[in-house]
User: Fold this.
Amino acid sequence: MTTGRDEAEREVGRRAAAGARVRRRLGRAVTTGRDEPEREVGRRAAAGARGSGRLGRAVRAVRDEAERGAATVVVLAVVAVALVLAVVVGAVTSGHAARVRAQGAADLSALAAASAERSGMLADPCSLARDVADRNGARLVVCEKEARGVVRVVAERSAGFGTAVARARAGPARERPGPADHGDR
Assistant:
């Protein structure tokens, strides 16, 4: 005959054995018949996931240590991209400015040479065109006198990453073909 005390001792033993089995399986992968293992979730694993207790603090400390300095790397990458972009924009702007200045020098040189050719003041109007181009920061590459007082010039100006080239032509309006000139005059 069993007494209540014997029953209580057996119940305590069964519970202790069940607890030992659970403690052995905590953190181990258990195969469920599928290809991927599932992790047994216990009190300690849940505490680590919530971030409470000693385990949670340890997990947070490891995670924080692994992420330390990540923002610095991102900021440095953004700054590097911004600097490269600034250099490219500066180069394009410098090239455009040099092209505009070269075109201005070519236009003025062609006008000066055409005026000198038409008035007959100088024997060589291209020398005046060269002087005007030099004063405007460009170098006269080509200066050709065409028929009836028309002058064609090519000027170039050094840019930051190359050379800007501009062409111009000047002379009397009736000698140059244009949209208003239909040959009726």
